[in-house]
Amino acid sequence: YGDETTLNDLGPGEIVGELASLSGHVRSARVTVSEDATLLTLSGPEFEQLLKSNHEVSFNLLRELGSRLRKANDNIVARLEEQRVNIEARMHRLHKLIEASKSINSTLDLDKLLSRILEAATSSIDADRGTVYLIDDIKKELWSKVVQGENMAEIRLPLGKGISGVVCETGEVVNIPDCYQDPRFNSDFDKRTGYHTKSMLCMPMKNKDGVIIGVFQLLNKKDGVFTNDDEEFIDALSAHASVAIENARLAREMVQNERLSAVGRMASTIIHDIKNPMSTIRVYAQVMKKKSGNEEAAKLAD
Known about the structure:
Elements: H1 20-23, H2 44-53, H3 55-104, H4 110-124, E1 127-136, E2 141-148, E3 151-158, H5 162-170, E4 174-176, H6 188-193, E5 200-206, E6 212-221, H7 228-292, H8 295-301
Antiparallel strand pairs: 1-2, 1-6, 2-3, 4-5, 5-6
């Protein structure tokens, strides 16, 4: 497929030759010498005469060709198996991304959506826990909802503060295999909660225009440390999550606008219903004031 494949790695005492000498076809391989080697050349007629006259040479050559062919086959099969495993892994990640996309697009409630995005991110890359932050452009803060007991509590972080705040401002990916060996890590959360943070993956959440709208913070890969594949998956999930968040925000705005519109229509109806009797009352009060001739009655009419 246009890529060079290594057929064999040869060591001291081994020989290498070109099968074109036997088949009569063009060369199909090349040799790269990494250390001093001895080069022997034979003309075509000399080589053919040697094979015909010396059966030991012919047999040794045949045995060597068989051995080399088996090694080459083993290398190619191993390469194909490696490609198969990589393809299966990619298909598995794609399936997880599709399932995650279905989950996060099944609700327009922003609080539920954040929980589903976090659940999809942690389960897909085998993280123990994490947080999904969104940007509050007005207050210049990151905010999120977290579970505290049986209730949901809101947490806020200033932009530029902490690892998540820096990731939000710079857009860089922070992948820390050992948090307590990294000077950027603040262990105060661990001290308060008793949780032990081992590894961390912190990545920006970007919308379709490449604008950062939030941050993924994922903790403690269950088997080892976070990998490049994990980063690629979260980056892909970010696009789906940002669309779902935008839809949830639009839905919330539509509901609020509809509520305001309903209040306006109700107020208009109430005003209309009250306006006519109030006009009648005002006219009667004016007439009562003029006809009463009594100062106290005039004050009451006013």
